[in-house]
Automatic annotation (TrEMBL):
<dbReference type="InterPro" id="IPR005064">
    <property type="entry name" value="BUG"/>
</dbReference>
<comment type="similarity">
    <text>Belongs to the UPF0065 (bug) family.</text>
</comment>
<dbReference type="Pfam" id="PF03401">
    <property type="entry name" value="TctC"/>
</dbReference>
<keyword id="KW-0675">Receptor</keyword>
<feature type="signal peptide">
    <location>
        <begin position="1"/>
        <end position="22"/>
    </location>
</feature>
<protein>
    <submittedName>
        <fullName>Tripartite-type tricarboxylate transporter receptor subunit TctC</fullName>
    </submittedName>
</protein>
<dbReference type="InterPro" id="IPR042100">
    <property type="entry name" value="Bug_dom1"/>
</dbReference>
<keyword id="KW-0732">Signal</keyword>
């Protein structure tokens, strides 16, 4: 009787365990969905298009890039939250992922409990740019121009984006009163800046660099501690305002709770993709710096940016739009 009981118990345990093991071993057995929570043409979309083919080769499945713009990346993050933690739905998050909960009302997720922060993939400097017709050549002239014209409009890739944070920090440092115009990504922001509908913006250098080089807009400073190798003649904000540093970053996020084997396969495939020479060359050409961090380092960056935004909200420099 005892022997039969043990056999039945073992059979029941195997019946529950083997399908899970088989699922992990079989991953991926279908295309992987990669959500881009911004419009096509921006830095996040650029990143997805840069890595998708090589990543698909590493995983042995096609990568389906899906743009879900809106609410500073929150609509795409909400879509990820509704996905299963099976490795088939992933998100490329912008820096706004860390701070949206301070700004966007009624988020359908918990920023720190509902997501698995897998890897900070790349960073790119934010560049402070002005439309060509703006009669300024440097930061001091821009500040004087803005103080003489309270309410001047500036753009960002979305509420709580790095561009929004940097502009808010500039307002604190220089006592400015400006009007924020949030966009659904860098591409529509770029269009309005080139069209003269807004005067200036902080935006990812990866998107703005071709237009700066073509003479279609003026670069005033970059939001990194040191100058950019792509624009060595343009000063770093840290030179002009000590301690000013807030780049754009893009990272890989999944739903919480993936199986350990599936998670390990995802991380391995992304790490190999980021080390691929052709991928690395494309990122360098587009002003991205590869990080490919550990999950722990990525989570630390998210918490750091959360504190920066918490301070801006406390100061009432940034509020819900």
């Amino acid at each position: 009787m005892l022997r039969r009981t043990l056999i039945h118990a073992l059979a029941a345990t195997l019946a529950c365990t083997l399908p899970a093991l088989a699922g992990a071993q079989a991953y991926p057995s279908q295309p992987v969905r990669l959500i881009v929570p911004f419009a096509p043409g921006g830095a996040v979309d650029q990143t997805a298009r840069t890595i998708s083919n090589t990543l698909g080769e590493r995983l042995g499945q096609s990568i389906v890039v899906e743009n879900r713009p809106g609410a500073s990346g929150s609509l795409g993050a909400g879509e990820l939250r509704r996905g299963k933690p099976d490795g088939y739905t992933l998100l490329l998050a912008l820096d706004s992922q860390a701070v949206n909960h301070h700004i966007v009302k009624s988020l359908p997720f918990d920023t720190f409990k509902d997501f698995d922060y897998l890897s900070l993939l790349v960073t790119t400097p934010q560049v402070l740019v002005g439309r060509n017709e703006l009669p300024v050549q440097n930061l001091d002239q821009l500040v004087a121009y803005l103080k003489a014209r309270p309410g001047t409009a500036y753009g960002s890739a979305g509420t709580a984006s790095a561009g929004h944070v940097n502009s808010a920090q500039l307002s604190i440092a220089k006592g400015l009163q400006t009007t924020h115009v949030p966009y659904k990504g860098a591409a529509p922001l770029l269009s309005d800046l080139l069209g003269g509908h807004i005067d200036f913006a902080f935006a990812g250098l990866s998107v703005m660099l071709p237009h700066i080089q073509a003479g279609k807009m003026r670069a005033i400073a970059v939001s990194t501690a040191a100058r950019s190798r792509q624009l060595p003649q343009v000063p770093a904000m840290n030179e002009l305002i000590p301690g000013f540093e807030f780049p754009t970053w893009i990272g890989l996020v999944g739903p919480t709770g993936p199986q350990a084997d599936v998670r390990a396969k995802i991380l391995k495939a992304f790490q190999e993709t980021m080390r691929d020479p052709q991928v690395a060359a494309r990122f360098a050409d587009n002003a991205f710096d590869i990080v490919s961090s550990t999950p722990e380092a990525f989570a630390d960056r998210v918490r750091k940016d959360d504190q920066v935004m918490a301070d801006l909200v406390k100061r009432k420099i940034v509020g819900a739009d």
